Amino acid sequence: MHRIRIGATAALLGSLLTTNNSYADSTSVNDFAQLDSNADGKIAWHEYAARRPVSGRIHPRRIFDNVDKNLDGFIDRQEYLAMKSRASH
């Protein structure tokens, strides 16, 4: 699958995954924990999709795949925090 390489994508992703403008680590960890519904330390597509129905201009699966940098099918805490960092800049 092709990766989205647009700077605006990170900003859009950040706005989809957070309900406030705080990018503090504690907020990011709490956001991650809410998405990681089975508390296994990684966000699977089905966990993400349950919280992010299709809406807006970019399909949630494309966003998920863009954040999953190591292509293992999951968003781990490090990938999530990296995405939040990109979205805050």
Automatic annotation (TrEMBL):
Alphabetically ordered keywords of this record: Signal
Gene3D superfamilies per record: EF-hand
Endpoints of the signal sequence: 1-24
Stored InterPro entries: EF-hand-dom_pair, EF_hand_dom
Keyword Iron recorded: no
Keyword Signal: yes
Taxonomic lineage from the root: Bacteria, Pseudomonadati, Pseudomonadota, Gammaproteobacteria, Thiotrichales
Pfam families registered for this protein in UniProt: EF-hand_5
MF GO annotations: calcium ion binding
Record-annotated EF-hand domain positions: 30-47, 63-83
Protein name: EF-hand domain-containing protein
Top-rank taxon, per record: Bacteria
